[in-house]
Amino acid sequence: KQEVTQIPAALSVPEGENLVLNCSFTDSAIYNLQWFRQDPGKGLTSLLLIQSSQREQTSGRLNASLDKSSGRSTLYIAASQPGDSATYLCAAAKTGANNLFFGTGTRLTVIP
Amino acid sequence: DTGVSQDPRHKITKRGQNVTFRCDPISEHNRLYWYRQTLGQGPEFLTYFQNEAQLEKSRLLSDRFSAERPKGSFSTLEIQRTEQGDSAMYLCASSLLTEWNGYTFGSGTRLTVV
Question: Shortest CB distance from B104 goes to which of A32, A46, A105?
Fold first, then answer.
């Protein structure tokens, strides 16, 4: 079974700080990877996805990278804002696989 | 099409009752997935459909759970004889078959078994 680990489990930062969330997976085979945001009691909102042929993706203040050789992905958030407070989930899938495996998430709190 | 829709948003039921949830995927998406998420955990895969065919089921999907996608469009997830351990968020997602462009999730159905 694929294991996806997210570190740290929780993170609290002052507004304006840049931060990095980490995701690692046990099998370093070719992967598609997707980062999600989840607000309390809500569904998942897709932030960025990286297909197996890509190494990183950017959207606004967010940048996600994928290093297949080491089985790691990072989500970089620049100039954090209180509205960024949420749980961030990393999910990985092998090419051709039928489902995503999720980490347990990093709960981010941005303090005004 | 505004995305993946799930109904109801919340369901409270007594232990032993049956419940049914509905998911309407993005219309052009061939694949539909059901996940379950408990508090503080990431979503866990339950089952997926490609068009109307149910192609994979997790061991988490006990015989009290059944899912259908009769015409390859919307899907239903039924839980029979609910137990308190079934309390969770049930999430539906859809994706394209031909090109992996990520999963789109719905807002989920929060089930509370009392």
Answer: A46
